Amino acid sequence: MLSYLLVLTVTATVQAQRITGEQKNDSCVCELSSSLWAFPTVKFEGVAKQVQICEKNLMEFHTKVKNGNVQLPKMERTLKDITARLKPFEYLNTNGLYNALHLQQLMKEVDEIYYTASDAHKKSPSKETNDLLKELTKAKKEIQKMYKSDVFNLETMKTRLRDLNNRAQTCKTIPEDFRSTCHQRIMSNISSPVVTKLNSIHSSYISGAWGRDAKLNSKERYWEQCLVSGNKNGNTIRMYNSYEDFMASKNYKDEQIASSYSHTNAVQGSGTILYDNTVFYQCHNTAEICSFNITTKATKRVKLDDAGINNKFPFCYYSCRDWTDIDLEADQDAVWVIYATEENHGNIVVSRLDPLELNITHTWKTHLFKRSVTSTFMVCGVLYATRYVGTYQEEVFYAFDTTTGQEINTLSLPFEKVSAGIANLNYNPVDRRLYMYNDGYLLAYNTFN
Fold this sequence. Notes:
Layout: E1 3-10, E2 15-24, E3 27-30, H1 41-86, H2 91-94, H3 103-123, H4 127-146, H5 154-171, H6 176-180, E4 190-198, E5 208-212, E6 222-226, E7 233-234, E8 236-240, H7 243-248, E9 253-256, E10 267-268, E11 273-275, E12 278-282, E13 288-293, E14 299-303, E15 327-330, E16 335-340, E17 347-354, E18 359-369, E19 375-379, E20 382-390, E21 393-401, E22 406-408, E23 413-416, E24 424-428, E25 433-438, E26 441-447
Antiparallel strand pairs: 1-2, 2-3, 4-26, 5-6, 6-8, 7-10, 8-9, 11-12, 12-13, 13-14, 15-16, 16-17, 17-18, 19-20, 20-21, 21-22, 21-23, 24-25, 25-26
């Protein structure tokens, strides 16, 4: 009997098994152990688990792709919205913050301030005007040095000139009775609403203005103006000859300011004020102030140089109120204009108007970004700014005193309202009340009490 050696190799496990066989009836007979080729159950289960994990990952990926297809249109709309919101600030890129601050403009500006300060010094010499002229002379020399220097800070010089300009404006002649009637420089209290009334037309008129003639010793006349055409324009003002008539919305007269909403003399925005039976407002679609005398029906105009209009610098803070680029306010013997310019980087500029001649007599530049406030008003030559606290609360948080050039950022004077949006807020020196147009509601508050 012959013995044969059979060597079987299992490649998968790199193992070999030696088997001894015997020849029987011309055949080789051998016994094999099948354990070597047992079904790899453990490995199969492992592979099956991996397949399940892959299927799960594929399903999750498919879900993400599906959700992505839903979210992409929303993201596109958001990007378009961001683009639209950034559009008003394009000038910062196209014109630049610093391109406008070249040396020639700086020298021109310091010359204008020097002329103003010199004129004030001639009319009323004082230590303040003398010191101011010395500082301006020093600033001139520093700008001249900039022409020869490769390294200088234009922004710092611009800020310095803004402060010098405010001091020069303060030195200019302002009637003595203007200061004497303002016994309390900074407001310290605002009452709860003492008047709350819906406008006389309809609750849908959410933008407009109202108040009382702001001229001291003037006839008691109340007025109301509601904007139409997308809360943008108006061409009439509603007049009442008594408080009782106003509260009852009766015996009024609608005075026509312009023949149509699109007329060149029509009203744009909610910055209207009534002073000495004359309506002061932003002229339609221009950076100009119009005055309309109700008695004579005569209209005058004056241009606001570089003032941003058509929602370039509206009041914003919580949400922007369209067509509030220019705000008119009245005081003891003057009308004030509050606006913003590119040259002042969108910060608030305050100009004082002679109400009879309708010319600008003084201009101050603040550091307060106009889009960061809800509304403004003037009291005794002091600019106040408010910000949104909640739907039913507002807060006065800032003041700029034109007689000293001082900015106060620590105020906190909360007051109530009945709705979120403020279209107009103005102070009346006759009854020392604040008048607010609050999303169609007319509110009034006592101050200094």
